Amino acid sequence: MEIIMRYIAFAVGLAMFGTTAQAATEYTGDKVQGMPVISALDVADLPTGQHRFMFEGVETATGQHWYVPLMVAKGAKPGKKVLLQAGVHGDEMNGVRIVQQAMAQLEPAKMKGSVVAVIGPNRSGIERIARTWAIANDGTELVDYNRVHPGKEQGNPPERQAWLMWNKVYKGNVELALDYHTQTSGTAYPLFIYADYRNDEVKTLAELFPADQIKKDPGEPGSMETTFVEHGIPAITVEVGAPRIYQQDMIDRGLQGALNVLTHYQVIDGKIGANAKTEQTYIGNEMSSVRATTGGFAEILVKIGDEVKQGQQVALQRNAFGDVIATYTADRDGKVLAVSTDVIREHRAMLVRILGQNPAQSCQNGC
Known about the structure:
The protein is of the alpha/beta class. The protein has helices at 2-18, 94-105, 123-128, 157-170, 200-207, 224-230, 248-264, 276-279, and strands spanning 26-32, 35-40, 49-59, 65-74, 77-86, 112-119, 133-135, 141-143, 176-181, 187-188, 191-195, 213-216, 235-240, 282-284, 286-291, 296-300, 307-308, 313-318, 324-329, 334-340, 344-345, 350-356. It folds into two domains: 2-282, Zn peptidases (Aminopeptidase, 3-Layer(aba) Sandwich), CATH 3.40.630; 286-363, CATH 2.40.50.100. Helix 2 crosses helix 7 (248-264). The protein is globular. InterPro entries: AstE_AspA_cat, N-alpha-Ac-DABA-like, N-alpha-Ac-DABA_deacetylase.
């Protein structure tokens, strides 16, 4: 029964979202930084080639607009419609460079299908180099833009921005989605992927990447990845290292994953490069975070990728005088997935995150 219901949801999602195109690309007549401004994208009415736009997003508090940079590579022949996106959180930069480099390598005359690239749909976060969208009303409210999708037409600014992106950019133009992130400020990931393994095509996407670790994950309500999957569009969240900086190794491997996906789906010609199989990616289904129980100066005693055993000491905190005031141990066997990079950590701050393998049947595809 569950399989039947998931198939019905998939079919309905495709009917309502993935196969419904815009009426046409709508040009406002304005230009920003020399780029034409559009209020709706329809890749179908674009000629073969590379295209750049500014998408007119939600209104600011003074009635102007946030503008989202879009790039489109339209192939000479029909094929898959792929989304490459970065900047859903404004302090996560490695993905931005990956998307830029991927688009620079594409040759539309040799392509089948299309690639849409979105840089920084969370305009408030990008401008502040911050994870959240800052709503100006009532003294400022901070909202996680990756928890409000598919948005609301008459919602608050991040909800309305999400609605505009879904209905005016993604709709009809996306059949596969790669959403690039990093860990948030003060922490770091390896090349790591969240993937809903209940969907075979999502599994394929994830394992085309030369990731260090993959988590089988049922998803997060309101996130980009989960909302795409719920609408019948295979998608993964690709976490690419640490925030606020460019890490060339992470960028290179994240780019290889994107090119592998485009090659696998015959959007471009080529050979599959390094991937989960060649890199022997660690795949887990359950993770947990070791969190600070007090404020203090943290020392992390393990590195990303280290194997740890339950009960092993992984971190400690000292007070301002150098006395140890708290020690922390792993709550499971597994691999270190993320660590704090900030020394000063308040109560409940993440110190170490561990990805493990839970043998319970209920966790087969993530828990």
